[in-house]
C-alpha cells in the first residue's frame, strides 16, 4: 500500500507541475517569449517566473518519488499508472473552466479502464 501511495503522490506532483507551468506560460512575459524566443531578457524572465520554477521543482520532486516506485514495481506495472494523470488533469481542468468534449471524456475513460486492467494483472 505504501508504494501505491508513492505512485499516486508522484502522479499528483506531475499534474500539479503542469498547472503551474501553464500558469507561468499564460503570463505576458511568456507570450512575449513566444514572439521573440531568442531574447536573453525573455529567457531570464521565464527562468525566474515563480510559476515556472515551482512547476519544474514539482516535476523534480515527483521524479524522485517515482524512483522509489520503480525500485519496487516492474516498469510494466508502474508506468501505465501515469495514465491516471490524464484523468486527474482533465478533472482539474474541467473545474478550472477548461472545455471537456465527449470525445475527450471517452478517451480519458478508456485510459482509466486500461490502467485498471494493468493494475489487476
From TrEMBL:
Cellular-component GO terms for this entry: plasma membrane
GO molecular function: transmembrane transporter activity
Transmembrane parts of this sequence: 48-71, 78-96, 102-119
Annotated Gene3D superfamilies: 1.10.3730.20
InterPro entries: EmrE-like, Small_drug/metabolite_transptr
Domain of life: Bacteria
Compartments where located: Cell membrane
UniProt-listed SUPFAM superfamilies: Multidrug resistance efflux transporter EmrE (SSF103481)
Signal peptide: 1-17
Keyword terms, alphabetized: Cell membrane, Membrane, Signal, Transmembrane, Transmembrane helix
Record's protein name: Small multi-drug resistant family protein
Organism: Denitromonas halophila
Taxonomic lineage from the root: Bacteria, Pseudomonadati, Pseudomonadota, Betaproteobacteria, Rhodocyclales
Amino acid at each position: 500500500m505504501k508504494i501505491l501511495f508513492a505512485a499516486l503522490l508522484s502522479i499528483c506532483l506531475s499534474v500539479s507541475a503542469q498547472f503551474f507551468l501553464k500558469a507561468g506560460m499564460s503570463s505576458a512575459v511568456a507570450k512575449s517569449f513566444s514572439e521573440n524566443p531568442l531574447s536573453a531578457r525573455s529567457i531570464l524572465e521565464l527562468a525566474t517566473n515563480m510559476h515556472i520554477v515551482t512547476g519544474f521543482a514539482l516535476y523534480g520532486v515527483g521524479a524522485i518519488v517515482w524512483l522509489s516506485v520503480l525500485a519496487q514495481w516492474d516498469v510494466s506495472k508502474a508506468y501505465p499508472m501515469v495514465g491516471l494523470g490524464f484523468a486527474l488533469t482533465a478533472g482539474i481542468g474541467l473545474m478550472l473552466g477548461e472545455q471537456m468534449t465527449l470525445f475527450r471524456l471517452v478517451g480519458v475513460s478508456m485510459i482509466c479502464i486500461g490502467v485498471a486492467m494493468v493494475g489487476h494483472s
